[in-house]
Amino acid sequence: MNVVLRQMLARELTLANRRRSDLANPLFFFLIVVSLFPIGVTPDLQKLSEMAAGVLWVAALLAALLSLDLLFRHDFEDGSLEQMLLSSVPAQLLVLCKTLSHWLVTGLPLTLMSPVLSVMLALPVSAIPLLMLTLAIGTLTLSLLGGIGAALTVGLRKGGLLLTILIMPLFVPVIIFGTSAVQSFANGMPWTAQLALLGAFGAGAFAVSPWLTVAALRVTVGD
Fold it and tell me: 3-state secondary structure string, the chain?
């Protein structure tokens, strides 16, 4: 089974590499939004520093949302999604591989880009490691929870807007805890509780999302 999972993950990464434009869109969106924010709002470094955590978090999650609609769509269109559900390998593990690959090609690059963009928003350098940690947890949680919405809308031609409406309420706690942890650290206030809550939310998503995603896929595919 380990061999099958490695092959599945390698397949997903190979297919993602072939669709480089789909990978570049979230990164360019993240870059453009954060770059334009000082121009459109204020160039004052003090005010930017106060808003930096929230701006980076919201921009990163919105950027990651751009590619969620494609999580299962290509497999659904070529029929491989149905074969995946009928495979002898538990479908939950295969879904977990797909969501992990989505995070590797979307959430992880956004996290690695965040230090450069945080400097533009005058975020204290000491807060950058915590920002990257919270973004890594938050974007992974986004991929896990977003998989549920992507499974429900995979059969719709224009399901991107519906997908956003379905899963956005689930992301509100993630944004609150992640932003609050970074901002509290930057202001010299306690921040470990927010980080713990963010981690607990991510662990909960990791535990339940594969099962809910598979159930949604079976309903959509009609298996």
Answer: CHHHHHHHHHHHHHHHHHCHHHHHHHHHHHHHHHHHHHHHCCCCHHHHHHHHHHHHHHHHHHHHHCCHHHCCHHHHHHCHHHHHHHCCCCHHHHHHHHHHHHHHHHHHHHHHHHHHHHHHCCCCHHHHHHHHHHHHHHHHHHHHHHHHHHHHHCCCCCCHHHHHHHHHHHHHHHHHHHHHHHHHHHCCCCCHHHHHHHHHHHHHHHHHHHHHHHHHHHHHHCC
Task: Determine the structural domain holding residue 51 and report its residue range.
Answer: 2-221
pTM, to two decimals? 0.87
Residue at token pair 């224009």: 158
Tally of domains within the chain:
1
Residue listed under structure tokens 């005058």: 122
Two tokens at 158?
Answer: 């224009």
Question: Could you report the per-residue pLDDT of 140-172, keeping only the tens digit for each?
Answer: 998 898 888 888 888 776 656 677 777 888 888
